[in-house]
């Protein structure tokens, strides 16, 4: 019997994570303790942004990537929100623009100076007011400039024109409960959401309608996430009825049964998926775990192939993910994570 039939051939079999040296970490950062399942960290080729503890309002740090080592207590923050910041997202078309959603019910868009902050930034470029409860999700449109989506605890999804600060689309009544996650499709024509009512929905924002819906995508009551893959399939993470953590792959044309479903373990942290469309690898980081598992998504069954696990000693409070154009390809990097500990941020190179 030939060896080939036993082991599936994969060019990613030898991808492994490598934490950087201590002096290349960002140290002495008071990472936010707010109980919200966002990543708490956003990265682009110029800056790393981290939501931090702040007295009297909400703030986040924006550090130039090269500013490693110990971060001074008096280092300036972006601190215009009057309530804790829950989510941040860098604009994909401009590395100096970042959006933040907060418990103060507003979304703010900030312009970061060329070399980072020299004094606290309190004045946003634009304030987007339209939610009646806290805003837990902000995500930029992948292809259109100045288009930002926000989702709040009022179960409303708003799509903004940031240039004019007006609502382009207001999607009410589509979600009966809290929205856990939102992900744009690759061309930005649709987005998918995971909701507390255990449904995954595919929504066409222009028509304001649900194009496809899968009820009880994961049976468990804990938070789930859904992300669009490049070919239009949807990858979800959630919990089974027995509180086992699960991963699933769905075909949006037929949501009756998942194409693939895997159970991982019975930990209780929400699983945050990160997807690389170039390699078709999904990285799954559990909040409070100390590992990053990664899987290759392929066209042939069982569709989700486990590749490897990066393990470390410290649990992660959040995770940032560098876009492909910020990687050092001369060192064969295919992904870079920014792992948040209680007091520091540690880059991990794949």
TrEMBL record:
<dbReference type="InterPro" id="IPR015943">
    <property type="entry name" value="WD40/YVTN_repeat-like_dom_sf"/>
</dbReference>
<keyword id="KW-0597">Phosphoprotein</keyword>
<feature type="domain" description="DUF1899">
    <location>
        <begin position="5"/>
        <end position="69"/>
    </location>
</feature>
<keyword id="KW-0206">Cytoskeleton</keyword>
<dbReference type="Pfam" id="PF08953">
    <property type="entry name" value="DUF1899"/>
</dbReference>
<dbReference type="GO" id="GO:0001725">
    <property type="term" value="C:stress fiber"/>
</dbReference>
<feature type="repeat" description="WD">
    <location>
        <begin position="78"/>
        <end position="112"/>
    </location>
</feature>
<keyword id="KW-0963">Cytoplasm</keyword>
<keyword id="KW-0677">Repeat</keyword>
<dbReference type="InterPro" id="IPR019775">
    <property type="entry name" value="WD40_repeat_CS"/>
</dbReference>
<keyword id="KW-0009">Actin-binding</keyword>
<dbReference type="Pfam" id="PF00400">
    <property type="entry name" value="WD40"/>
</dbReference>
<feature type="repeat" description="WD">
    <location>
        <begin position="128"/>
        <end position="170"/>
    </location>
</feature>
<dbReference type="GO" id="GO:0051015">
    <property type="term" value="F:actin filament binding"/>
</dbReference>
<dbReference type="InterPro" id="IPR001680">
    <property type="entry name" value="WD40_rpt"/>
</dbReference>
<comment type="subunit">
    <text>Forms homooligomers, but does not form complexes with the other coronins. Interacts with Arp2/3 complex components, including ACTR2, ARPC1B and ARPC2. Binds actin.</text>
</comment>
<dbReference type="InterPro" id="IPR036322">
    <property type="entry name" value="WD40_repeat_dom_sf"/>
</dbReference>
<dbReference type="GO" id="GO:0007015">
    <property type="term" value="P:actin filament organization"/>
</dbReference>
<keyword id="KW-0175">Coiled coil</keyword>
<dbReference type="InterPro" id="IPR015048">
    <property type="entry name" value="DUF1899"/>
</dbReference>
<comment type="function">
    <text>Regulates leading edge dynamics and cell motility in fibroblasts. May be involved in cytokinesis and signal transduction.</text>
</comment>
<dbReference type="GO" id="GO:0016477">
    <property type="term" value="P:cell migration"/>
</dbReference>
<keyword id="KW-0853">WD repeat</keyword>
<comment type="similarity">
    <text>Belongs to the WD repeat coronin family.</text>
</comment>
<dbReference type="InterPro" id="IPR015505">
    <property type="entry name" value="Coronin"/>
</dbReference>
<protein>
    <recommendedName>
        <fullName>Coronin</fullName>
    </recommendedName>
</protein>
């Amino acid at each position: 019997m030939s060896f080939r039939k036993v082991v599936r051939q994969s060019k990613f079999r030898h991808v492994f994570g490598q934490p950087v040296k201590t002096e290349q970490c960002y140290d002495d950062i008071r990472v936010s303790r707010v109980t919200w399942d966002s990543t708490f960290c956003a990265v682009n080729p110029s800056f790393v942004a981290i939501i931090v503890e702040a007295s009297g309002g909400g703030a986040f740090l924006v550090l130039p990537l090269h500013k490693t080592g110990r971060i001074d207590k008096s280092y300036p923050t972006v601190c215009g929100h009057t309530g804790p910041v829950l989510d941040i997202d860098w604009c994909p078309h401009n590395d100096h623009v970042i959006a933040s959603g907060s418990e103060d019910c507003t979304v703010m868009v900030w312009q970061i100076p060329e070399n980072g902050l020299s004094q606290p930034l309190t004045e946003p470029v634009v304030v987007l007011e339209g939610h009646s409860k806290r805003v837990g999700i902000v995500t930029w449109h992948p292809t259109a400039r100045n288009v930002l989506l926000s989702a709040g605890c009022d179960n409303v999804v708003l799509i903004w024109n940031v240039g004019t600060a007006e609502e382009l689309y207001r999607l009410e009544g589509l979600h009966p409960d809290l929205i856990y996650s939102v992900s744009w499709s690759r061309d930005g024509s649709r987005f998918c959401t995971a909701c507390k009512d255990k449904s995954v929905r595919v929504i066409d924002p222009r028509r304001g309608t649900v194009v496809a819906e899968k009820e009880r995508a994961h049976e468990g009551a804990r938070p789930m996430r859904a992300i669009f893959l490049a070919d239009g399939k949807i990858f979800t993470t959630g919990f089974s009825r027995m509180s086992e953590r699960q991963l699933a792959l769905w075909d949006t044309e037929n949501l009756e049964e998942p194409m693939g479903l895997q159970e991982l373990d019975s930990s209780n942290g929400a699983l945050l998926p990160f997807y690389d469309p170039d390699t078709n690898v999904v990285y799954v980081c559990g909040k409070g775990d100390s590992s990053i598992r990664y899987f290759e998504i392929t066209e042939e069954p069982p569709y989700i192939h486990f590749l490897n696990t990066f393990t470390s000693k410290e649990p992660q409070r959040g995770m940032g993910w560098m876009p492909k154009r910020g990687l050092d390809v001369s060192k064969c990097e295919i992904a870079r994570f920014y792992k948040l500990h209680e007091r520091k941020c540690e880059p991990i190179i794949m």
